Q: What sequence folds into this?
């Protein structure tokens, strides 16, 4: 049986039910930890599922922040220091990564609270996650205040990458299923993935 | 062995290699088909991996478009008609979905070219994909022109949803691994996913 919902059906759903449903609609989401530090040296770590590829020349990633909800210290630190790190979440620490979504006070380092290790490299001010096999250092380039709700779309340029060489193929493809990077769906479901196939560049006359 | 790349290392990579690498860095991506129609009735269907959750009140999704590359007809149609559909890609038709990324001329319907079925419902002007088990109808609300590269961030409000009731749990969670929704990584890798766990809402004193 198929369920159909109109705009007014959606608006009248219970708030929690709607949050679960709408968060699941986009499909599988990336699972990353964002590391930042404020000007007093306080480290912060926050799980995000909204990192998205924006372009490869220049090499830029974007992320949606809802500063009134969880990663507000993260957003504030990026605005203040202009640096942040994005670190893949893997199967062996996804539960610790999820725990960073708790509302810890600003003077608590989520690294310490959940048992992950801050690590510095490449001259980047923000901390990386030592346990992560894909570590990306970024510098803020642009931020857009979304009008229809209190969120921000933040774009950073990739200025440092560290990853396991064994996860790269000869043409630069990162085989993230081989390093147990996880995917998120909805607000609280975690997944691992298997490869179905790598498909050739599509042309109108191919089939 | 870990590979480290600085900003200048990244900039000096071969263009194709860099595109593969940077496209893989964000982690797993959503796999969706966007359906649109122009004012002359010409249908268009385009695979996108950049749909991202923006908020659930109002219920809005965003998507990055690179109009100079593939889904340019999609972007033009959304700007002209203000309506589009987002449809999950499942394991049984991911190869057909990938084929929509070929550069067909504007007068060719990708539905017809790849063998998927346009379907209309909910009074939405844009076509849905009949074969998809999660069909979302959206109305354009905002668009942002990204400054650092020629892309647009387009936000639509969800005005219609159709999905299999069996894929929903009692609290509104969509169990997309049960309906074989696929995930993308990089430019050309397709994955299916298994659930690792559903975790409780995190609080500072939970562990």
A:
């Amino acid at each position: 049986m198929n369920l159909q919902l109109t705009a007014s059906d959606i608006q009248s759903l219970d708030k929690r039910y709607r949050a679960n449903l709408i968060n699941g609609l986009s499909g599988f989401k990336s699972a990353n930890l964002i590391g930042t530090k404020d000007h007093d040296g306080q480290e912060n770590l926050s799980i995000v599922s909204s990192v998205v590829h924006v372009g490869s020349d220049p090499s830029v990633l974007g992320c949606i922040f809802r500063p009134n909800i969880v990663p507000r210290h993260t957003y504030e630190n990026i605005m203040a220091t202009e640096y942040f790190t994005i670190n893949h979440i893997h199967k062996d620490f996804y539960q610790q990564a999820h725990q960073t979504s708790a509302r810890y006070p600003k003077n608590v380092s989520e690294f310490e609270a959940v048992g992950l290790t801050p690590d510095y490299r490449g001259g980047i001010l923000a901390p990386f996650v030592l346990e992560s096999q894909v570590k990306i250092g970024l510098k803020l380039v642009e931020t857009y205040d979304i009008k229809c709700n209190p969120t921000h779309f933040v774009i950073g340029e990739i200025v440092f990458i560290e990853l396991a060489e064994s996860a790269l193929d000869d043409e630069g493809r990162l085989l993230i299923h081989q390093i147990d990077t996880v995917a998120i769906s909805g607000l609280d479901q975690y997944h691992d993935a298997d490869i179905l196939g790598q498909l050739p560049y599509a042309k109108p006359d191919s089939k």
Summary: Chain B touches chain A through 117 residues (CB under 8 Å).
